Amino acid sequence: MKTYRLIYASTAARPLGPAEFERLLMQARIYNFSEGIGGLLLRAGGQFLEVLEGPEPAVAALYARIAADPRHVAVHTLEAAAVRGPLFRAASLGFAEVEPAALGRLTAYLDPAHRRALLPQGYDEQEIIADLLLEFVELHCPHVLGQPGDGAATYPQRSQYV
């Protein structure tokens, strides 16, 4: 079965305290595991970027729930496509706090309007997106990937474009 990847950005409707956020993250991890969804959640203050990877029906259903959740505003899709395989551990939700400026730049690069303007014709958008995400994680939150050979994470290969 092919992996489906959906990347979205959103803003918190209100600030979440540390205990409330930890509870929300734990619930998300349990749900995602039960549905075979993996991915990555990045947070910078009240801004979020999430990568969801797994079976298309499960990812689409989860995203519909997220988009309708009143705790999010300005939810917008940055990518939704079938891909060769997951970038992040299957059935796990990695999490990292990142700097607002860094998350803002990543979100801007992933925005389809900007991405298409920046890429020359003939480049594989899926590979560029994967490389961009992996480079961001390696630079800003390498703990999300674990260590090669530790059994806790797969360390994805970069494409020919890097």
UniProtKB/TrEMBL annotation:
Example GO molecular function term? FAD binding
The record, for Pfam families, names: BLUF (PF04940)
Domain named BLUF: which ranges? Answer: 3-94
What InterPro entries does the record tag this protein with? Acylphosphatase-like_dom_sf, BLUF_domain
> What superkingdom heads the lineage?
Bacteria
Q: Which residues form a coiled coil?
A: none
Q: This chain belongs to which protein, by name?
A: BLUF domain-containing protein
The record lists the lineage as: Bacteria, Pseudomonadati, Bacteroidota, Cytophagia, Cytophagales
